[in-house]
Amino acid sequence: MTRAFFVPFSFFVGLVIAWQVFVVAAAVPEYLLPSPLVIVGTLDKSLLTEIGYTAGEALCGFAIAGVLAFTGAILFVRFRTIEQGLFPIAITLKTTPIVAIAPLLVLWLGTGWWSKVAAAALISFFPVLVNTVKGLKAPEADFQDLFRTMRADQFQVFRKLRIPYCLPYFFSALKISSSLAIVGAIVGEFVGAEHGLGYLIVISSAHLETPAVFQAIGAAALIGISMFYTLEFFEKRIVFWIQLETE
Amino acid sequence: MNLRAVGLDSRAPQPDAGLVVADNVVIRFGDVDAAGPISFSVMSGEFISLLGPSGCGKSSLLRAIAGLIPIASGRLSIAGQPPGEAAAMRVGLMFQKPLLLPWRTTLQNIVLPAEIATGSSGAIDRSERSQALELVRMVGLSEFADAYPHQLSGGMQQRAALARTLMSDPDILLLDEPFGALDEFTREALNEKLLSIWKSGATRLKAVIMVTHSIPEAVAMSDRILVLSSRPARLLEVVPVRLSHPRDPANADFARILGVTRAAARPS
Ligand SMILES: Nc1ncnc2c1ncn2[C@@H]1O[C@H](COP(=O)(O)OP(=O)(O)OP(=O)(O)O)[C@@H](O)[C@H]1O
Ligand SMILES: [Mg+2]
Q1: Whose CA, among A175, B42, B105, B163, lies 20 to 30 Å from A192?
Q2: CA atoms of A147 and B263, how far apart (whole Å)
């Protein structure tokens, strides 16, 4: 076992034990703070279904946002007018909290799957757009001059210089956005849903079934962590030159 | 008698006018004069050094010849045509920095000009591939053909950049302090390599213009040295170097030319 894994793992185990001891010793009522043993003991297969809903919505919204943001970034950088016209609007939308928009999305798209997908996509779109635009513009002027001396056309400059150059920026934005996508999906479920972890949290806390709330929170974290590490797996392989440079 | 046949048509490149002709060229960034007014011409078959103090406008002159920046006034022509438009003459510029793409291996970096020349397909043919392999061998990087730039030393990166510039098969080679960042020892070895490529006749090279800070390097390499003033670069003196290769720095003529160049370059 590597140290990088062992150290945080032992701290985690220590915290969980402290939590268990505190709850038992102080006789904290279960509806306020259930003990780790109770949370794990009351786990039920039905949680998997809820995870499936939320993860599906988050992933779908995240994928849509990734594709749109990448395409949008290329259009922004290729056509300055589009960037000048849309970037301020994009920034305004970015600063509008998703909680404020979610009710509208449910109103427009219903309480089903698509309103959550839209919320997840909306919240994860902007970091990817902004970072990818930054990455596409990042190649220093000398690199662009190099391509000019080779008489490259705009398409070649994008394919062989700008796009590979922006990939590290794109991936780091995707990692940020992956956790945001889950926030979007859960907020969407808070507003109106029949399934999902957000729905589970709202219903269980209303009925003071606090262990189920903790289970849902843990599950949301698990989805986030798996998305993050999956992305990191691909990042290490696709933008290998960045890892190698900093090693 | 047909005037065109004896080269009297004014639009045809004049045989004695030179491959690169600068006539009162001025380069300006905003209200900063970077170079000029400066006039010189480079003949076919010549290896020219531009020698001048730091920041005097040497890189700007090369960039203008490569057609990357416009000139503010005067006239600049490559084989009788404005820079960047001389379709028949290919100009290759090796930048001050290696500028290798980090996601490409040495070989992949070197074939880049050929890939770009194919247009949208981007697929190079077998003869281009073998040309690239030949260049890799020529600059002594065969063992590192599949290595990535970060796995190369500074000198190896510069050699890869030189090979990439040669891959575009230039008629006119512009070198911006090609090995300036390297130690004396490596630099001399690479300069010799460059000279042997230039002398070999295996390429279509017709002229080389090399920017340098180093007086001994200029004397060792070139047929003529253009000594430039501090910014904005003007021509202080042209020093011809009529010595055969290989040149021996211990030779008396070498030392004499070194002295002449040094005197010309000394800030007055
Ligand atoms: N893109 C630019 N915009 C504005 N000023 C510039 C630009 N490029 C160069 N200059 C200015 O022009 C002058 C000449 O620059 P240049 O790079 O040609 O000098 P140089 O002789 O190559 O210097 P060095 O030996 O340090 O490489 C400098 O004063 C520099 O600040
Ligand atoms: Mg320079």
Answers
A1: A175
A2: 39
